[in-house]
Amino acid sequence: MSTIEKYKQEIETELDHAREKLVELKTKIRALSDVKRLESVDEVEELENMVNDMKAKIKELNKEVEDSWEQIKGDIDSSKNAIDEAFARLNRAMV
């Protein structure tokens, strides 16, 4: 398996995990007070958009030639880090 294929597989696994965590967060949000729920809904929507953007970048990676994958990999890594930070921020806010 090539480096690109391994990378795509790892990122797709992380995206699946992110989708699962989004479902969990939406469940937690339902139990929050109205004020907290309203604050969290925007962040969850932003997080969903980030996951969708990352998904689009993976599709782009599938189309790109091997020599330009490093740039796209950097973009995807940045998206992954932003998603991880957003999940952490939301989890802290719900405690």
Entry keywords:
mainly alpha, 95 residues, 0% strand
Give the overall silhouette.
Answer: elongated
| Rg of Cα set | 15 Å
Residue-averaged pLDDT: 84
Helix-strand pattern = HHH
| Biggest sheet character | none
Number of separate helices = 3
- The count of β-strands is 0
User: Structural class of the secondary elements?
Assistant: mainly alpha
Percent range of helical residues: over 70%
Q: What is the straight-line distance between the termini?
A: 42 Å
Strand percent estimate: under 5%
Low-confidence segments = none
Question: What does this protein structure show overall?
Answer:
- The model has no long low-confidence stretch (mean pLDDT 84).
- Helix 1 runs antiparallel to helix 2 and helix 2 packs antiparallel against helix 3.
- The protein is elongated and about 50 Å long.
- It has 95 residues and is mostly helical.
- Helix content is 87%, strand content 0%.
List the helices and strands and how they pair.
Layout (H helix, E strand, L loop, with lengths): L2 H28 L3 H30 L5 H25 L2
Short précis:
Helices cover 87% and strands 0% of the residues. The chain is an all-alpha fold and 95 residues long.
